[in-house]
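Supplementary Note 3. Input sequence used for the single-chain structure prediction.
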Amino acid sequence: MSTAPATLVIGATGTTGSRTAAQLIAAGRRVKAASRRATPLPGAEPVRFDWYDPAGFGDALGGADRVYLVPPIGDPDPAAVMLPFLEQARAAGVRRAVLLSSSAIAQGGPAVGQVHRALPGLFDEWAVLRPSWFMQNFTGTHAHADGIRNDGTIHTAAGTGRVGFVDADDIAAVAVRALTDDRAPDTDLVLTGPEALSHDEIAALLTEVTGRPVVHRHLTHDAMRDRLAQVIPAEFAAMLAGMDRAIADGAEDRTTDTVQRLTGRPANGFRAVAERELLSV
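The predicted structure, written as discrete structure tokens, is reproduced below.
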């Protein structure tokens, strides 16, 4: 009996990778769960993977015919490590690649936008997921969630700009369809939740859901950049602060029907996600 080809999930312990791997496993798919420590995942084959250690690429790619790509976090030039990997993946027999990007970064734009531009030339079957900002930024391990837990504050330079925040479960559901449908999307997909909300509105909703006061502190672009630069590289801090400024200017004030179209169900709303993740712990 031959072994079915696997889906290599890079970042399988992360926010979207863990959910994508779990949903693939639930659907009966063979999964190679890639992480820096080869963390065991029920139902998957753990494999060690580090973007900055090409010596491990071959083992990770063995037996895989498709891959879910989560770029290295905090790297302002992910193409430098990702493109050599993708070329090796194609040579190893990977035929479909699904890349996690961002709604804020278009094809050919900075950082992962360069990988987006290269992907269609490397694979006949592909998709680029461009989710809006994650709802889990306020419930998980993101700095926003830490601020909410520590002192009930959210700091941004986004002003009153609205964002179509999206549930990571919905991102994973779209990723699974993009990886497993008979025909790949062969395009980029902007993913949002059902409504666009300001950070002030997010703070108010979190206050209602948790019963604990949460406030949004409005910072200038420079103040936000400097705050971020205390914990992440300056270039990356400047890029993130610039994204906040774009939000303030209305760049993320939109919703799409992508989750509904690809999964057949509506995208999850912020209140439901907050109740699911904050009231069950």
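The two ends are 44 Å apart (CA to CA). The chain is about 40% helix and 15% strand.
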